[in-house]
Design a protein that fits this description.
469 residues; alpha/beta; Rossmann fold; N-(1-d-carboxylethyl)-l-norvaline Dehydrogenase, domain 2; Single alpha-helices involved in coiled-coils or other helix-helix interfaces; 3 domains; seven-stranded mixed sheet; two-stranded antiparallel ribbon; binds nicotinamide 8-bromo-adenine dinucleotide phosphate
């Protein structure tokens, strides 16, 4: 009976694929799902001769597990996870471990950990990235919680995680809700990079009139250079697809309306709370929101006019400067995300090893990129590096590519094509490297209308001026 090493609760896309992945690594797996049909279909169509046992009632599921038990919950984030934990609690005992692999908010993670610790049940909040394929073949895993609980699940997590050489893309990240915090920031960076890629695609398609096939070739070429990453690779692939029914490039038929489900927004909300600027992540979330205003945009397009005269750039030159702009924007997106992690780590006592975070993002996850090797090295040299842009390698890269980056923003502005991620990243770079910003005027204005006082550069203290006199 109770000989299963781990139970997987939730058999939608992620749960099914993780269960198969775990079983493929010689662990005995028990599975359960609220709706019985999913369990039956999974057992009949996917499991084959793997060591997977199905339970159709909750007590039966729990009894299949070796004690102390390990249960991986892979259900819809939010209320469903709380409901599952409530259902499981009466059947669990001290020392059992619940791993929440959903995209939970880190505060929910912390609340659940506290609630379960009253019953001496361990809670591990674990970010999982890589989608369906990652879950099946090797995800990037971001666990946080009590160290002793992590040590008990480590062998399973290391076995199923993506690998770089022999190195698994999983590590103990720290206490409390840190696993879900790191996953949240991962997704924030993902939003920013996806938006930047969409912008360079737009300039090639709309401005230069290149075909999806031509643009695909550019992305394939870029994927062999410093931009090499999963998102560049899949963009190169997806641009070549044609619609089975019409034969047209599928990308041209897809409605230009994107959704944002929460993790990008959470990143910005938390970044604001801890006073870390994330303008490119913010621009990416805003871009999705504005994309959703399709009807309004269609109406506005016949009322609000763009620039009268366009500006042309020769195609080879355009492709070259777009690569530079995209690379710079990617660096700034990682810089903003890692800055959130650095400050949160201090404020929330996470003691995060930022080099290790970069290492576990090198495979399995959506933002995996060659660049993460250099990011990991940069934080290995200096965990408290104030900003990734200051690491010598990245400072030099930004210096080398900034002229192309600026040309892209100029071209887009002159032709009335929005590039919120690329231009916000450039403004971030220019702001961060400015020893003096015009906040002196803001301070004067605040003192003028609200007597908020200001500081001076030539003497200590707070000053107030009677401006109208
Ligand atoms: P979904 O997020 O679509 O959730 C479906 C699962 O939740 C089903 O098993 C469903 O059971 C179960 N469920 C719901 Br809905 N309400 C429930 C309740 N009240 N009690 C018990 N079970 C309930 O599945 P997914 O896409 O596989 O994602 C699973 C988790 O992994 C989510 O938290 C997601 O955020 C996270 N995640 C997803 C991805 C991805 O690429 N999809 C990547 C990384 C992380 P039912 O069959 O009875 O309806």
């Amino acid at each position: 009976m109770n000989d299963c090493d781990i139970g997987v609760y939730g058999l939608a896309v992620m749960g099914q694929n993780l269960a198969l992945n775990i079983a493929d690594h010689d662990f005995n797996v028990a599975v359960y799902n609220r709706t019985t049909l999913r369990i039956k279909t999974f057992m009949q169509e996917e499991v084959a001769d793997r060591s997977v046992k199905a339970a159709y009632e909750l007590p039966e599921f729990v009894n299949l597990l070796r004690t102390p038990r390990i249960i991986l919950v892979m259900v819809k984030a939010g209320f469903a996870i709380d409901a599952v934990i409530d259902d499981l609690k009466p059947y669990l005992q001290a020392g059992d471990i619940i791993i929440d692999g959903g995209n939970s908010h880190y505060r929910d993670s912390e609340r659940r950990a506290e609630l379960l610790s009253e019953h001496e049940i361990h809670y591990i909040g674990m970010g999982v990235s890589g989608g369906e394929d990652g879950a099946r073949l090797g995800p990037s895993l971001m666990p946080g919680g009590p160290l002793e609980a992590y040590q008990r699940v480590e062998a399973i997590l290391k076995a199923i995680a993506a690998k770089v050489g022999n190195e698994p893309c999983v590590a103990y990240l720290g206490p409390h809700g840190v696993g879900h915090y790191v996953k949240m920031v991962h997704n924030g960076i993902e939003y920013a990079i996806m938006q930047a890629i969409a912008e360079v695609y737009d300039l090639m398609r709309r401005d230069a009139g290149m075909t999806p096939q031509q643009i695909s070739e550019v992305f394939r070429r870029w994927n062999k250079g410093p931009l090499s990453s999963f998102l560049i690779e899949i963009t190169g692939h997806l641009l070549t697809h044609t619609a089975a029914d019409t034969g047209e490039p599928l990308i041209d038929l897809i409605l230009d309306r994107a959704q944002q489900k929460g993790t990008g927004k959470w990143t910005i909300q938390d970044a604001l709370d801890i006073a870390v600027p994330v303008p490119t992540i913010s621009a990416a979330v805003d871009a999705r929101v504005i994309s959703s205003l399709k009807e309004a945009r269609e109406k506005a397009s016949s009322i609000l006019q763009g620039p009268l005269a366009g500006f042309e750039m020769e195609q080879d030159k355009l492709v070259k400067v777009l690569e530079q702009a995209l690379l710079a924007t990617m660096i700034c997106s990682y810089a903003q995300g890692f800055d959130v992690l650095r400050v949160a780590s201090q404020g929330y006592d996470y003691h995060l090893d930022l080099s290790q975070v970069a290492r576990i993002w090198r495979a399995g996850c959506i933002i995996r990129a060659d660049m993460l090797n250099m990011i990991s090295d940069a934080f290995a040299m200096h965990n408290n590096l104030p900003n990734l842009m200051l690491a010598p390698h990245f400072a030099q890269s930004l210096q080398d590519i900034q002229s192309g980056w600026r040309e892209v923003v100029q071209l887009a502005v002159q032709n009335g094509i929005p590039v919120p991620a690329i231009s916000s990243a450039l403004a971030y770079y220019d702001s961060y490297r400015s020893a003096r910003l015009p906040a002196n005027l803001i301070q004067a204005q605040r003192d003028y209308f609200g007597a908020h006082t200001y500081e001076r550069i030539d003497r200590e203290g707070q000053f107030h001026t009677l401006w109208e006199q």
